[in-house]
Amino acid sequence: MGLPVAVVGSGYVGTVVAACLAHVGHDVVGLEIDDDKRAVLERGNAPFHEPGLDVLLRSGLDSRHLRFTGDVADATTGADIIFFCVGTPSDTDGRADMRYVESAARSIALALDGPKALVTKSTVPIGSGHWLESLVEEALAERRDEQVPFAVASNPEFLRQGSAVDDYLHPDRVVLGSDDARAVDLLRELYEPILTQRFPGGDRRKPPALVCTGLTTAETVKYVSNAFLALKVSFANEIANVCESVGADVTEVMHAIGLDARIGRPFLDAGIGWGGSCFGKDISELIAVSEEHGHDARLLRAALDVNHAQRGLVVRKLRRRLCGLRGKRIGLLGLAFKSNTDDLRDAPSIDIARWLVEAGATVRAHDPVVRTVPDVPAMRVVGDAYSVAERADAVVLVTDWPEYNELELDVVRDRMRGRLFVDGRGVFDPDKVIAAGLLHEGIGRPAQLVS
Fold it and tell me: Could you report the per-residue pLDDT of 327-353, keeping only the tens digit for each?
């Protein structure tokens, strides 16, 4: 018998959480106040690109384990657990904007009908759980019903865009944080199918680890996890620049050090840096929290600086190789910040395209999913990968979509008026690029591999 669950907010995290919990047998109601977005969800479609999610949405709706509503009371009445999955975008000083969480909390507090576990699933600032607790207590006092029992918990998400469904259903670990033992027990019951992998498609050979901790510690885990992954990428990119200087091959260097069990290979791929809605926002929030408590997080600042500079490295390579950018034609392969998503938030492609346009270049781009880029109106987005090479002086691989690995490089060469191919993700074999008659420019690759 599944637990009754409400999921507040049907953005990226909320939609994945609602669909996956319904898939493992819980009765889930998704609260979405945007009528247009809710209509899309009720048809079994996600309002964004995420492989496998539409299938789970339709399955949940068909089985009646999942439904959506725009009414707070309808969503939360009878629910044992309420997940907060509303947006927390960064404001101008790098802190998370908590207006949407606050609004949702006040609305939910006024509708509380019995004992609840209020669970933050959105990435919220460290200490938000206690703030949320005070907020709900104040709202309950306003309705003169402050005795309604509730507990606040944190259940940080570790979803990767492009593999979010698999990440949620087959996680490495499940983190449950609360200062109320009953809330932790309730969440443990909720996650039992995932912890034991007893659900359709579960893998009982690989049960995830369970971490039960305090509220503030759970909130901190999320930020530190993303910060460390971002540090690994920035470290690889910093070393890539060293490798270029001394004539070493960063791909071989990272392969070798990644074989050390203490280091590990994932997130050591050098390139044009990370993007998306998580790494930059979470590091900025962790820096801001550190400053608030009198600590200068210099290593975290360095990770941000290295990542931003890496985007400019592509433009500098193009300027040097093409002897200037004014009047040049540049083709970009990939726009989303990573493959298997349509997310352009903090995508390296946006900065690169903007800088190229500002330098006087004509930019044409392709992405398998992204069709428009409002932030760079001067850039033309085309529907065919080969079209970006049409009369181009240079082509740059920006996003490592698997489709681009299948490109016939000799066809790319024939369409270009120049010969420069910049592999911004290190996925192409330099020898094959050169054999196709192109000039290969990598990141962190030795000079002798450049024709």
Answer: 999 999 999 999 999 999 999 999 999
Give the mean pLDDT of the chain: 93
pLDDT at position 147, please? 74
Q: Is residue 243 part of a domain?
A: no
Provide the pLDDT confidence category of residue 278 given band limits of 50, 70 and 90: confident
**What angle separates helix 348-358 from helix 298-322, to the nearest 10 degrees?**
40
Same domain, 100 and 146: yes
Say what the pLDDT of residue 447 is. Answer: 56
Q: What does the block give as tokens for 72?
A: 């707070």
CA–CA distance, 254 with 48 (Å, rounded to integer): 33
- Global confidence as pTM: 0.86
pLDDT greater than 80 at residue 379 = yes
* Whole-number percent of the chain with pLDDT over 90: 82
The one catalytic residue in 20, 85, 243, 278 is 278
pLDDT per position as a tens digit, 68-77: 999 999 999 9
User: What is the rounded CA–CA span in Å between residue 315 and residue 318?
Assistant: 5
Active site residue 243: no
H helix or E strand, kind and range, residue 71: none
Range(s) of the domain holding residue 172: 4-213
Q: Which residues of 242-263 are buried (b: 16+ CB within 10 A; e: fewer)?
A: ebbeeebbbbebbeebbeeeee
DSSP states along 161-212: TTSHHHHHHS-SEEEEEES-HHHHHHHHHHTHHHHHT-STT--TTSPPEEEE
Residues 186 and 79 in one domain: yes
Q: Which helix (H) or strand (E) holds 160?
A: none
For residue 10, give the CATH number of its domain.
Answer: 3.40.50.720
Tell me the DSSP string of 18-69. HHHHHHTT-EEEEE---HHHHHHHHTT--SS--TTHHHHHHHHHHHTSEEEE
Q: In what order do the strands lie in the sheet with 329-333?
A: 380-381, 362-366, 329-333, 394-397, 420-423, 439-441
SS (H, E, C) 329-385: EEEEECCCCCCCCCCCCCCHHHHHHHHHHHCCCEEEEECCCCCCCCCCCCCEECCCH
Confidence of residue 133 (pLDDT cuts 50, 70, 90): very high
Shared-domain flag, residues 205 and 256: no
**Using the 8-state DSSP alphabet, how is residue 426 labeled?**
S
Q: Is the pLDDT of residue 451 over 90?
A: no
In this predicted structure, the answer to whether residue 449 has a pLDDT above a threshold of 50 is no
78 by DSSP, 3-state: which? Answer: coil
Count of domains in the chain? 2
For residue 424, give the nearest of 276, 300, 275 by alpha carbon. 275
